[in-house]
Design the sequence.
């Protein structure tokens, strides 16, 4: 057993950490609201290899491991990066997995920064792909059409709903005509392809939510160590300290589990899909709970927009629920462990 | 390179131990332990000694195997998963480790060989009616009298006192100083006048005891550590384990629930394993098991690689015990009325393990430091929050 990242992995995480420190301060995160897109941050992330690292060498990337990506995801979550990091990475990996000319061409253009591609975790409903993650800033969305996987341009007719997590979500129109005419990435097997894309997505989001939870606990601890009430620092009250101790314990568990899930992609592939869903469910629940506790510890100040903790509280919910609830992720764990059944 | 697997030698020890347990552990023994409430069995203990499993972390010259913390994780998981009767051995080897660390040569020579041969049982006399988590508030008195000390007082939760040879006793030897500074530890023979053992039965089925000490004599030769240095001796005792964990109990719960869900069908003849709520609870249990394992393994890995533990041990104990309690409750609810059938009742699913774990789990958040004590340690040591009150 060795739970320490290698020197190279630590350098990679530190490099991204430094970038987020400079380009994703709470002020910058606020300035990017309500859309949740900081173009400067995004370009710097691309320059540092955020997308190309996620794609294997055969497809023009530099083929970082899932664990490398997870460590970067932790930094992204810690800093609440206002950039479509996971959406691009998941789409890039999906395009590489699909292969073929259409996918290869789109991937090359994405790697060159000419296109910004995302994936819809949801199917088309009433002629709309609802709440496409990064749909407000992407040029293309990969979506399921029957058993096929197609690419739909996000277009000028998309609508961008304001949302709790200040995420660049969009409802993207995709009527039958448009879907039928859309370039086909894969004529069949869309379900399996999207399922493996969802594994990546759950894993990366788990890492981000774990990082977010750790940071939220730190913010709560810092406030509780400074604020006095009834003649002492409020962190000395067990009613405060114990909740933060629970949060720190869960955050440590969330980080370990996300890293294990990422490690398993290469080292224990038979269990990696189950672990990705486990990591997501636990990190989502931990980020939800720790941001709630930390906000509450701030008292009335936590309720004020001026304090940073609300930025964490809102994204803990948005980043997780745009994919699935912790309860749904627990059922996915069962699907991966026992095999799927028809929902009863 | 990061690696979440236990090292190969740990898995090798696990396989060996599993074979040993297949031979020496049985449902009959599990039931006997439950029915008697005594987590100690002479025959099983002899088998452990013969197999080299009585104190596997101890050096070979003492009868151990010199296993490292990672190997001990695998060993501990297997033993607890099998619910082997180990409580008496656990307290005996823990006290032996303290004697090895701070005892006299005569004490080591007398106690350690017999302890590791499974010939004696040493029990713990720490808690009192008015001193549980605040164990340093102990008031049981030890007063010098020639070469002896005379002990008077009452101890709570002295499990196995009825079969024990010695009690590792925390006594007050000085009332003029701060509470932590007036304590001394003794190894007191239990088979003597003035020691009265009164049975206490608990919700998990385990029998424990109240022990009364009336003018009980103990030679100064059986003092463990310095006079008034008992708190230091206690910290040696409590610091030896890197991280307690109830991961294996969660594993028992998961296996029992999975077996029930596969074997039992609803009114339409569909196995409960296909039920949406059952699957959700199984998923949660799988997750809590994995997090419990990871938190314990992190502590073991840190200890094994020479890193300083800060709050990793308390996190392991706190999370796994709280998760076990929450999971046992949730699973009992989703299983429904059949989860009411008791441990070893012939009608119970999975021989009633779920029902038992529901009761067993309650103690795990209380003994070996309550969850509140562990949260204090995490808040203060781990997070640097001010000392609380």
Sequence:
């Amino acid at each position: 057993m060795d739970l320490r990242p290698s020197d190279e992995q630590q350098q990679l995480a530190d490099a991204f950490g430094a970038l987020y420190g400079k380009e994703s301060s709470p002020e910058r995160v606020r300035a990017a609201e309500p859309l949740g897109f900081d173009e400067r941050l995004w370009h710097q992330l691309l320059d540092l290899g955020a997308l190309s690292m996620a794609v294997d060498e055969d497809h023009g990337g530099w083929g970082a491991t899932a664990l490398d990506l997870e460590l970067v995801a932790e930094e992204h979550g810690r800093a609440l990066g206002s950039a479509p990091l996971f959406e691009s990475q998941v789409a890039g990996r999906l395009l590489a997995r699909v292969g073929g000319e259409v996918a290869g061409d789109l991937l090359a253009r994405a790697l060159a920064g000419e296109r910004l591609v995302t994936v819809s975790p949801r199917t088309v409903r009433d002629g709309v792909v609802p709440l496409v993650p990064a749909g407000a800033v992407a040029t293309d969305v990969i979506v399921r059409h029957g058993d096929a996987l197609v690419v739909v341009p996000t277009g000028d007719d998309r609508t961008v709903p304001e949302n709790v997590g200040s995420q660049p979500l969009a409802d993207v129109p995709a009527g039958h005509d448009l879907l039928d005419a859309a370039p086909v990435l894969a004529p069949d097997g869309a379900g399996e392809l999207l399922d493996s894309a969802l594994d990546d997505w759950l894993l990366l989001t788990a890492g981000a939510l774990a990082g977010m939870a750790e940071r939220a606990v730190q913010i709560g601890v810092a406030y509780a160590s400074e604020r006095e009430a009834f003649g002492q620092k409020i962190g000395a009250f067990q009613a405060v300290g114990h909740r933060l101790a629970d949060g720190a314990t869960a955050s440590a568990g969330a980080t370990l589990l996300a890293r294990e899930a990422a490690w398993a992609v290469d080292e224990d592939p038979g269990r990696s899909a189950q672990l990705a869903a486990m990591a997501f469910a636990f990190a989502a629940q931990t980020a939800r709970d720790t941001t709630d506790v930390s906000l509450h510890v701030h008292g009335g100040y936590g309720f004020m927009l001026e304090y940073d903790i609300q930025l964490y509280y809102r994204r803990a919910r948005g980043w997780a629920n745009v994919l699935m609830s912790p309860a749904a992720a627990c059922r996915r764990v069962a699907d991966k462990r026992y095999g799927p059944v028809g929902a009863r | 390179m990061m690696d979440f697997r236990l090292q190969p030698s740990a898995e090798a020890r696990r396989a060996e131990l599993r074979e040993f347990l297949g031979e020496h552990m049985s449902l009959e023994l599990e039931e006997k332990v439950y029915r008697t409430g005594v987590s100690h069995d002479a025959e099983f203990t002899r088998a452990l000694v013969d197999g080299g499993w009585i104190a596997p972390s101890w050096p070979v010259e003492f009868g151990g195997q010199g296993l490292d913390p990672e190997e001990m994780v695998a060993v501990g998981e297997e033993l607890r998963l099998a619910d082997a009767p180990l409580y008496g051995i656990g307290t005996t080897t823990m006290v032996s480790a303290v004697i090895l660390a701070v005892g006299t040569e005569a004490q080591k020579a007398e106690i350690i060989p017999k302890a590791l041969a499974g010939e004696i049982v040493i029990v713990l006399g720490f808690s009192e009616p008015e001193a549980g988590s605040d164990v340093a508030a102990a008031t049981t008195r030890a007063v010098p009298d020639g070469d002896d000390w005379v002990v008077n007082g009452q101890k709570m939760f002295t499990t196995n006192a009825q079969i024990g040879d010695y009690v590792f006793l925390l006594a007050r030897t000085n009332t003029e100083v701060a509470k932590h500074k007036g304590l001394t530890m003794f190894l007191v023979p239990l088979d003597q006048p003035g020691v009265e053992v009164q049975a206490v039965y608990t919700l998990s089925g385990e029998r424990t005891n109240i022990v009364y000490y009336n003018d009980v004599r103990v030679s100064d030769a059986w003092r463990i550590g310095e006079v008034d240095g008992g708190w230091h001796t206690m910290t040696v005792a409590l610091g030896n384990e890197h991280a307690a964990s109830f991961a294996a109990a969660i594993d028992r719960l998961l296996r029992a629930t999975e077996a029930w869900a596969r074997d039992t069908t609803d009114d339409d003849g569909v196995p409960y394993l296909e039920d949406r709520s059952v699957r959700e609870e199984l998923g949660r249990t799988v997750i809590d098991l994995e997090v419990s394992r990871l938190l314990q393994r992190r502590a073991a890995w840190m200890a094994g690689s020479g890193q300083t533990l800060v709050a990793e041990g308390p996190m392991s104990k706190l999370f796994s015990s709280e998760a076990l309690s929450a999971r046992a409750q949730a699973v009992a609810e989703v299983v429904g009325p059949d989860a009411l059938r008791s441990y070893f009742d012939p009608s119970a699913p999975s021989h009633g393990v779920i029902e038992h774990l529901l009761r067993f789990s309650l103690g795990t958040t209380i003994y070996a430091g309550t969850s509140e004590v562990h949260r204090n340690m995490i808040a203060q040591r781990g997070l640097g929050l001010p000392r609380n009150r």
